[in-house]
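Write out this protein's structure.
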Amino acid sequence: MKLLFFCIGFLLVNCCFAQSSQPIPAYPLKIPTAEYFARNFAYANDSIAPVGNNGHFQYLNIHTNKAVFNKVFEEAYPFSRGHALVKYANKYGVIDRNGEYAVQPKFVHFSFYTGIGTNTTVGFDTIATPGLTNMVYFDFDEGRLVEEIGGHMYEPIAGDIFDYEQAGKYGLIFKDGSKTLPIYDSILVRTQYMVLLKKGGKIGAISSGKKTIAPFVFTEAVIEHWDGYSGSIAYALKKQRHWYYFDSGKGLFKNKHRPVSTHYKFSIVKIGKGLNYVDEHGKLLLRKPYKWLSELGYMGINEKDEIVLFDKQRRGYGYYTP
């Protein structure tokens, strides 16, 4: 059965770059694609990364700053499970860690797909004719060309809490059949195990076990990361000058930094005119604020407009200098 994949092009670019009111320059690479490969670079604790300037990239050992092979590319992405997507002579292909081609650079276009976890697949157009597409796929998990995107199907978990509407108000229905009166103004989001909602103009959260996760005292909410398969959700709620961060039914920490996006293991917060990551304990992870940060956690653009890769410890490595 086919695995559920998502194409991450236009939508992700607009979501991420919307973080900054400052102009973001054009780069000779696809930022959404780079974000996903940057995450794989960090997860693998890789010592090899592409480094570019003036539209040319070379793969360097990040500890010695020496080239690992002599080939130079027009576009290059971090390795994922031993292979990397590159562009040479205006055509896309795939190399291994020795710089040898696993897929010859003969494709004008590619489409990038991501699956569950760090699974990634690149589809190449074999017929570059408008309105006509014939795709071949390179699966980075398998390290080879495949005929179609395949894998296991994961079904969403059934819900334990539901809502109903009556006379413009909302009530909750629980798995045991019991229900509340329709006393809520609106439903902000409902997962399998909890619901975030408004009552009397204030925001609160209730679990499927009928417990109050967050009392109705909050005035703003940032709801960013919702996993429909596990039922988990990361969100932040504002009360007076503080933001309170939650992972589903668990309160994590509070601080005065306005969240830009929320995630289970980290969030992006506004620090002055810049951005920083905070971990699940509220600790700032970067030494200085950035102009833009990837919502996947491992890539940023600094005030010099340089693209930076981060490892798991959020140490930065130069990726591209304009």
